[in-house]
Amino acid sequence: MNDDIKNFVHLFIDLPDDLVSLFEGIVTYVELKPYEFFTKEGEYSNHFFIIKTGIMRSYLLNEKGSETTRAFFISGDISGANSAMMQKTASEVNYQALTKVTGYKGNYDKLIELTLRYKEFSLFYIKTLENAYLKAEKLLLDISTLSSTERYITLKKRIPDVDKLITQRHIASYLNISPVQLSRIKKKLNNL
Which domains does the chain possess? Predict the structure, then answer.
């Protein structure tokens, strides 16, 4: 049995080994190179991604070609075009590795089949959705109430070496500021 999968599942629910093995059967180990896409806008995807190592982002591309990073995903997070999978529509969002990303690509339809056969998987699915909802709600709250400096500090707490791991352009995009404004924030914080 794969300890990565068992540990991931146990973040949400204690499943017996035979059920963890069933979940293991619907996922495949994958490595993404830096800047490789997991899902592109306009694609139909039936896969979620459990991140073991690395940083992935979701971002939107506007009509002028500007990118807005919506979220960063790190070890233990689930990424992928969830809304598109649930609604069987094309993704409106891009999911891209920013560093080398390792993890497990899972088949969404097979997960749903497991939820229909085993109540434990229904509970697991509910717990993963609750977790995603709480993270999304926290992100919206941060965007609504925190300054860009406070959001940068929050990001640094979540990903301590973020400045060494990904480009300033991506961090600035996430904070919805320019790279120049990010440089000013960093300079100000270094002078404190």
Answer: 3-121 (2.60.120.10)
